[in-house]
Design goal:
By secondary structure, the chain is an alpha/beta fold. Helix content is 33%, strand content 18%.
Length: 157
Amino acid sequence: MNPPLPERPSWTTYFMDITALVAKRSTCMRRAVGAVIVKDKRILSTGYNGAPSGITHCRETGCLRAQLKVPSGERHELCRGIHAEQNAIIQAAYHGVSIRKATLFCTHMPCSICAKMIINAGISRIYYLSGYADDMSLSMFEESGIEIFQIEDAPWE
């Protein structure tokens, strides 16, 4: 007789687990963030935060935001890195993949800059784990009609 099989994770748990793994590629010294864009239970694109391709990472140059004492959630332009959500959207565009009506899984609530990109990219639903110090994004998601869900009690925390 075969031993009982372990319970399969839900699709949400499955994609959030992958999102947490993607975040491990981050080169940001302050916060590792991962993003996965999914449609019809298929991964379309992934992204993590860090310097653009071919640019020296903050791990080598030091964190500009820390040097300038910029608080989290403010002055996003004062950073060498690009956010995980932005990287996931850019990767989809770079490879010609439509993300219209897709779902975004993200380790953190997107900032207001990412929110604008997510709205214009046509993403319809967001799942995230942790909050972020930028309240404007939540109001923009609500106004745009994007469904947004914070995942509580994630199995890896």
